[in-house]
Amino acid sequence: MNYESKIIESAEFLLEQEHKSSLAIIRDRVRFIRLLKSGEAKTQSAAGKTIGLCERQSQRLWRIYQEKGLAGLQKKPAWGYWGKLSSTQIAHLRQFILDDRAETLADIQVYLQNHLGVSYTIGGVSDLCKRLKIKFRKGRPVNVRQQPGAIKDLKKKQKIEK
């Protein structure tokens, strides 16, 4: 394929754009196109290997260039995945947990399915809670011989003595 005629930007312009870009991934993408334009690499595979890409990734870069041009390659990649829930749904989930209506991960899973319409596995709910830094508060263990209300009486007596 004659890449010199298919690539409309000049090699000097591509070199200039390569030096301007601050992100390494964008710099590599522009370098890929520049290598094809200048003839330093005859194939997509050779240009990709020069910058450390496999053949399939090189084909993907060439397809992006054909569809969107150089601007498509210079677009910052959208990194990260925030999950299935929107910020308002996360706020509703936090409120549900703060209201102490959830005792187990299964309770949260049922709430997510019934009220928010989002399905998670138990492991997914666990990962979601870790990501949102939600921790379940465990009550202190109570002695089986302790009488109900004894703690309140003890606290009242301590206040009177002070």
UniProtKB/TrEMBL annotation:
Q: Which InterPro entries does this UniProt record tie to the protein? A: Homeodomain-like_sf, InsJ-like_HTH, Winged_HTH_dom
Residue ranges constituting the Insertion element IS150 protein InsJ-like helix-turn-helix domain according to the UniProt record: 29-79
The record's Pfam families line, in alphabetical order, gives: HTH_28 (PF13518), HTH_33 (PF13592)
Residue span(s) of domain Winged helix-turn helix: 104-157
Q: What is this protein called?
A: Winged helix-turn helix domain-containing protein
What is the organism field in this record?
Runella slithyformis (strain ATCC 29530 / DSM 19594 / LMG 11500 / NCIMB 11436 / LSU 4)
Organism phylogeny = Bacteria, Pseudomonadati, Bacteroidota, Cytophagia, Cytophagales
